[in-house]
Amino acid sequence: MTSKAKQVYLIPYYLWIALFVIAPVLLILYYSLFDLNGKLTLSNYANFFTPVYLKMTLSSFWYAFLITVFSLLVAYPAAWLLTRTKHKQLWLLLIILPTWINLLLKTYAFIGIFGTFGPVNSILDVLGIGEKQILFTGFSFVFVSVYIFIPFMILPIFSALEDLNPTLLSAARDLGASGWTTFRRVVFPLTVSGVRSGCMAVFIPALSLFMITRLIAGNRVITLGTAIEQHFLVTQDWGMGSTVAVFLIVVMALVMVLAGGRKGVRHGK
Amino acid sequence: MENRNRWSNLYLALVFIVLYAPIFYLMYYSFNSGGTMHEFEGFTLDHYREVVQDTRLIIIVINTLVIALLSSAIATIIAVIGALAIQHVRSRRAKNTLLSLNNVLIVSPDVIIGASFLILFTIVGVKLGFSSVLLSHIAFSVPIAVLMILPHLEEMSPTLTDAARDLGATRRDVLTKVILPVIRPGIFSGFFMALTYSLDDFAVTFFVTGNGYSTLSVEIYSRARQGVSLSINALSTLIFLFTVLLVVGYYFLTAKKAKKPSVELTAEAGVPR
């Protein structure tokens, strides 16, 4: 009897899903079928498979991969050490705090730090290496991105490590495993879900960053995100932009299926 | 063992230093009387004066706050409804589908959200500016607020509502006197998350602002593209202090409730957008 009444007040939410979740994806798909003159065509897709775009896609993936790997290499030990500290929650909060600061401001800071007269170059100078062009290189792009993403890698790994049963470690030690063996055979396999979540939380955004490439890499690095931004806001070629977006959506879906299946990254439960 | 401890502390310290160095670097040079971010000439508050006297900037700050408060309030209301909707669904499959749809906007890269909203607004005829920014902020804040509210709703014992109904409460009474008070912490954290989402967002807003309307992060981006200007540093110092206040306040609010705040979710929600 009340099911009708229920339906009525649920409308805003379903409307939200229809308008802002389903419609946008369909619109992107639809627009990817039109060229600059508004003609229905598959030429955007044909374009996408030309060397120019394929090279861009490849380099975008390569950078995203590098960013993910370096974040993981820094974050895993950090997460591990964090679980060993007293006042864990406080330290964790301190890891989280920088993520609340606007990403653009942090990126902007690196313009100064990596600049020609910045502190990094002064240090290089003192060390006798001499000044280097750091800003506007692939290196600075990777460094700043890793910097931005590290907390998002640390957190899921931290919580996976927290869930680890400590008796397993004692058991491994009792059975004569060395530290490295314990890590390789016990700790890492049991925390791989956290690693996976972390990698997903880093890899997909890393493919689509465009503000860092613009500010730090000086258009030296072009990611899929940069390409989409360029097509939509600069050249106004929405068709091609949508095509790149479709590709990104497909990749995203693939990564999620490959990496996690049901246990999505940022599900509440 | 001692030695190992020292190394591990050193490593952690290094991570923290790197995490905070850029932020303090910005703050330090905000007091520089020279115009650069590499040579500290002398202490000055000029850049703060500049920020305070910049009417355009102040209007932008107000815009940002208005958008944030308004969008998160509306998003939270929709999210409460959404959480109820998800909870009411009986079939497991339908529930999962609904949850996946809910999470699409959390997982999608910002450029895609921004670009698709730009298409949507252009087709529907929403003028780019205040309304398009407000709508998109509401749109991307809803799912995270749902995720913050849902666990509270699911933890609530169903006997509570049954009892209320047995005692003769109307549907509305059950909602306002039983359900809403029980899930209040979730509603608060949902609102807070939406707020930070909105304050932080750059990429989506960048796509849908159009000319003449700007929020803080879009403004910072366009200023940063023109190079170093120490008023950005002064501004970022102010923002940093504001953020710390906000976070500390939030933790005090949630710490009172003995429930463990979902630190992880809170932070992951802030993945660069």
TrEMBL record, chain A:
Primary location recorded for the protein, binned into one broad class: membrane
Which CDD domains does the UniProt record give? TM_PBP2 (cd06261)
Locate the ABC transmembrane type-1 domain: which residues?
Answer: 57-259
Q: Where in the cell is it found?
A: Cell membrane
Q: How does it sit in the membrane?
A: Multi-pass membrane protein
The record's listing under InterPro entries reads: MetI-like (IPR000515), MetI-like_sf (IPR035906)
One BP term from GO: transmembrane transport
Q: Which residues cross the membrane?
A: 12-33, 61-83, 90-114, 134-158, 198-218, 238-259
The cross-references to SUPFAM superfamilies, in alphabetical order and at most eight, read: MetI-like
Q: Which GO terms describe its cellular component?
A: plasma membrane
Q: Which UniProt keywords apply?
A: Cell membrane, Membrane, Transmembrane, Transmembrane helix, Transport
- Organism superkingdom: Bacteria
Q: What is stated as this protein's family in its record?
A: Belongs to the binding-protein-dependent transport system permease family. CysTW subfamily.
Q: What is this protein called?
A: Spermidine/putrescine ABC transporter permease
Species name = Paenibacillus durus ATCC 35681
UniProtKB/TrEMBL annotation, chain B:
- Asked if Membrane is a keyword of the record, the answer is yes
**Bilayer topology annotation:** Multi-pass membrane protein
Its transmembrane ranges are 12-31, 57-86, 98-124, 130-153, 174-197, 232-253
InterPro entries membership: Bact_Polyamine_Transport, MetI-like, MetI-like_sf
Q: Name one GO cellular component term.
A: plasma membrane
Q: Which domain of life is it from?
A: Bacteria
Q: Where in the cell is it found?
A: Cell membrane
Domain (ABC transmembrane type-1): give its ranges.
61-250
One GO term (biological process):
transmembrane transport
Which keywords accompany this UniProt record? Cell membrane, Membrane, Transmembrane, Transmembrane helix, Transport
Q: Name one Pfam family in it.
A: BPD_transp_1
**Membership in a protein family:** Belongs to the binding-protein-dependent transport system permease family. CysTW subfamily.
State the protein's name.
Spermidine/purescine ABC transporter permease
Q: Which organism is it from?
A: Paenibacillus durus ATCC 35681
